[in-house]
Amino acid sequence: LAEREFEKASEMLERENLHEKIEICRREIRKYNAKDLVKRAKKLARDGNPRSALACFEEAYDVLKEDWILKKIERLKDLALGLDKTREARDAEASGQYLKAARLYEQVFINDKKEDLILKQAACFIKAEDYEKAVSALERIPLKGPRQWYEYGFSLARTGKYCQCLKAWEKISSQDERFVEQKALVCDLLASDLYDRFGREKDLGKVYIEGKYLIDSGYERAGLLDLMKQCALSWIETLWKEERYETILGLFADYSMSDMDAAMLQLRARVSFKFAEQSGDRMEDLAMFWLSAVFSEDLEGVSRERKEDEGKSEKTKERQQNGAAS
Fold first, then answer.
1. Distances (CA, A) of 220 to 198, 211, 215, 232
2. From CA 308, how far away is CA 304, in angstroms rounded?
3. Regarding predicted confidence, which is higher, 217 or 117?
4. How far apart are CA 281 and CA 267, in angstroms?
């Protein structure tokens, strides 16, 4: 009886060991299949099939529980969602719903900031005539090629930023007749804008800088040069209060001594003195313009006295002539 019991116990132990070995084999098979799924998923992802790759990775993760697979799954989910949104955006764009398309492109590159998607979004904003948003979109990426620079400049012009438009279009070497005409039109718009802003804008420095850029580019318009001189003089008052003497000296760079009257020479000398006092630099300018201002003031005084004498002489002659006539 005892022997039979021992035999039964022995059979039970062997059966349990067998079940354990079977379970080990099953686990190893699942791991092997999961690793095979990972290989297949990687190949599918390379071939541009993210949804199938996602399914394989998810099935493999259930077995392997490895963190890198979970990160891959999250990335593929974002990619799959991006593909859906991109398809919706293209459909919206094709149907003329440009603002909707732009919003959908925005949702795509929140997760994946691809330059081509940003360019598509900007193009939709331009078609929808929302030029400020087009400018914002294009400023997110490095622009390449004439088309991108043209669209950026065009959008800037439509938002009233004419000087920035012209600077952007400097990147385009085309001499296409229509493009040349557009640049000329933007130059005219900038000139008119400068006249308008001179009377109302507090920051005349910006007005002067843009006007100087326009003049230096070869643009000519009656009165524009005189306007910029007035603008510079008005700006100098602000710069003087802010003790920005070096900037003021830069404004005199376009004037030779022969172009300056006595008042300008005196102002130039005072600025040179203040800058030398502030920085200890450009002492030769101080000496040259200070002496010029002094002599100019003396000569102006002599000239004034001569004119006064001539006036007195003329009046005397008139009195004499009137006396003789009577």
1. 18, 11, 7, 18
2. 6
3. 217
4. 18
